[in-house]
Amino acid sequence: MTTRTVPTTAAVAPGPPPGPARVRRRGGVGTVVRHVLAVVVAVAFLAPLLWTVRVSLSTPADVYQFPPRLFGDWDFSHYPRAWQARPWLRYFGNTVFIAGCVVALTITTSLMAGFAFALMKFRGRGILFGLCMAVMMVPQTVLLIPNFVIAQTLNLYDTYLIQILPWAASVFGIFLMRQFFVTLPRELFEAAELDGAGTWRMLFLVAAPLARPPMVLVALNSFMGSWNSFVWPYLMTRRDEIRPIEVGLQTFYGAEGTDWNGLTAAITFTTIPVIVIFLFLQRYFVHGAYGVEGGVRG
């Protein structure tokens, strides 16, 4: 009697699927690339600030040296000299006051005008909105002389009002708010109207809470524009008691040249408060700019 043996194949342990490992490798490479790009962008944005601080601590001879020296002698005497050159505390207070008023007025006018152009029906709405957008096409330098004459006629020259009122409305803010309100469902306002809400209640109790993200963007844009304004307050004011920081910085420009050490020192100690404020409030800025709060619940 013979027995037939059946050949058996050795069991092969299944290996790890190639797909997930390849995905992990690609994910790791992508993370490294993103981090490298983030570092490069951060260095590109921080380099001017770091170089400003370096020049403020350099000797006058090192400012014009080429190639520039990243490390050298440190001279801290430029900071007290620059601080004593102008009433910086007064400038800083004026800048905060002017920027705060401009932001408050800009948000109010942008909210109201955007709501009207988006949701209210009235004759000539499209024409008026087109005229508002046309203002963006006019260079501000063309209007300097007419605005100067108007300020002199209305006795607004050399006052706080002339630094606030011309920027109380923003075409960009009106456009942004109008585009945001257009995207909101009409049923939301129809329901509020059925509940007896009037136009003002719908604006401030329904539309305004939903419009917090674009309102933050409008506020940031208005604040930075007012804080960095130089030409307008320089032409429309002559007293240091009402002038902002940017006008005070022109002290270091003269016929004999530019005092780079004093200018960079003044830029440094006038910029540090803004940086500190942003570091404390950055999460509110980011959350307000990119996080849409509110909505319609069914």
From TrEMBL:
Gene3D superfamilies: MetI-like (1.10.3720.10). The chain crosses the membrane at residues 32-51, 96-120, 127-148, 160-181, 202-224, 260-281. Residues 92-281 form the ABC transmembrane type-1 domain. It is a multi-pass membrane protein. This is Carbohydrate ABC transporter permease. GO terms for cellular component: plasma membrane. Belongs to the binding-protein-dependent transport system permease family. InterPro entries: MetI-like, MetI-like_sf. Keywords: Cell membrane, Membrane, Transmembrane, Transmembrane helix, Transport. Residues 1-21 are annotated as: Disordered. It is found in: Cell membrane. Residues 1-13 have a biased composition (Low complexity). Its main location: membrane. It comes from Candidatus Avipropionibacterium avicola. CDD domains: TM_PBP2. GO terms for biological process: transmembrane transport.
